[in-house]
Amino acid sequence: MQDRILGITVALTGAYAVYHGMGFSAEKGVLASAGALPVLVGLLLLGLGVSVAIKTRGKSSGFEGHWQRLLYFGLLTAAYILGLSHLGFIMATPPYLLVLLALTGDRPKKARIYAGLALAVIMTAGTYALFDKVFRLLLP
To answer: Which spans in 88-109 are helix H?
Structure first.
């Protein structure tokens, strides 16, 4: 039952992203505008959420013990979104990714912390370069 609720929640989140992504103005269509990424991610979430909701009808997948991590993930993402406008993409993203990596893995050892920090910085720099040079969109 809990997996089904999770699937429905993910599907509704995807539908919300598609709805708001379609609201961006587009001269050449949705896929050529700033709303392309939210629409594509929203469609992916919508499809995955519906798939999980249908496949888990009456089944239990052992996810029951991980609700605390899911709550932390939601709170962390909300803090990241709020901090993004104040700190900017480059300052807010590496700590978010580092804590996210720590939440999804086992207890971090010193080597994993350094590797996670390097990965967070590389992913942030790569994403910024992609949006700046390829998409020509400024990130906050």
So the answer is: 89-104
